[in-house]
Amino acid sequence: MKFFPMFLRMSGRDVVILGGGETAAQKARLMLKTEARIVLVAPELDVELAALVAEGRAEHHAGEIDESLFANAALVFVCTEDEVRDAELAEVVRAAGALVNVVDRPDLCEANTPSIVDRDPLVVAIGTEGAAPVLARQIKTRMESLLEPRLGELVALGGRLRDTVAEEMPREKRRAFWRWVYQGSPRQSFARGAEREAAEKIKAAMAAGGAPEDTGQGSVALLPVGSVEPDLMTLRAVQRMQEADLVICAEPEFAPMLELARRDAERVIVGQSYGTEDWLLSDQRKAIMSKYEAGGRVVWLVSRRDAERAALGLPEDLERVPAVRV
């Protein structure tokens, strides 16, 4: 690796942006997600950057540029939109001992900004050392679909409770407890917007001294399919596929959607896994109920035309999830 991936502490530090145009504004937008103090260095600022200064969200330095500017800098962006000037300023920053990123000049960079999947405080960073930024964005898009929007709130709650768990829960039970928090019903509750319910479950488990025993309660999600393109799947459908212990594809053409299922999930493709297309909906329903009654989580991919008929006889808590965006 030419660049080692790591995370920098930004709270109480400066991010210095050398430039006052649109490119500088792009970096400022990114840095506003952090707790860093943003210092904008340019004779003049565009209207967006000037507004940040007026709101007190950034500071403006219009004077001379010397090494003292970078004494407390965690990171420096050079983006004056003048290639010669950028190269000159990069040398000044290096001489001051600060990490420098020269926009669109990877040969002058000592730090690169990755593609980011932001579920603060959970952050996924994807980099290709500048070799394939398009691929990095594609991976980011896939990760965005796999990590539910509220996951960061669950991670933040876990962080607030971590010291208490360490103090009050026996060491041998902690790993199973956190596995349950992030893989079990608390995460599922957060995913559907029931934050209070999730917090109550977690605190009850803490009071009981560990994760609850498996109650044997299974779940069934019915996904009516109107298109077999995996990249059109809804976020909720992908989440259910990632949680499932068993995924049944009622028709062989649904098989490409299995690439979004959990790696160790059991997979059944009617017409392939069972060697015949005559494995009826009623037969599939029996397999689903067997798994459900054993406490398993099941996803059933059926054609839209068969969705209502398929739902007959399934549990009352059946979840119907749109499989693809329309």
Automatic annotation (TrEMBL):
Source species of the chain: Celeribacter halophilus
Signal peptide stretch: none
PANTHER family the record matches: SIROHEME BIOSYNTHESIS PROTEIN MET8
Pathway assigned in UniProt: Porphyrin-containing compound metabolism; siroheme biosynthesis; sirohydrochlorin from precorrin-2: step 1/1
Pfam family, one: NAD_binding_7
Catalytic activities: precorrin-2 + NAD(+) = sirohydrochlorin + NADH + 2 H(+)
Keyword Secreted: no
Keyword set, alphabetical order: Methyltransferase, NAD, Oxidoreductase, Porphyrin biosynthesis, Transferase
Limits of the Sirohaem synthase dimerisation domain: 150-205
EC category: oxidoreductase
Molecular-function annotations in GO: ferrochelatase activity; methyltransferase activity; precorrin-2 dehydrogenase activity
InterPro entries associated with the record: 4pyrrol_Mease, 4pyrrol_Methylase_sf, 4pyrrole_Mease_sub1, Met8-like, NAD(P)-bd_dom_sf, Sirohaem_synt_dimer_dom_sf, Sirohaem_synthase_dimer_dom, Sirohaem_synthase_N
Gene Ontology biological process terms, A to Z: methylation; siroheme biosynthetic process
E.C. code: 1.3.1.76
Keyword Transferase: yes
Annotated protein name in UniProt: precorrin-2 dehydrogenase
Residue span(s) of domain Tetrapyrrole methylase: 220-302
Domain of life: Bacteria
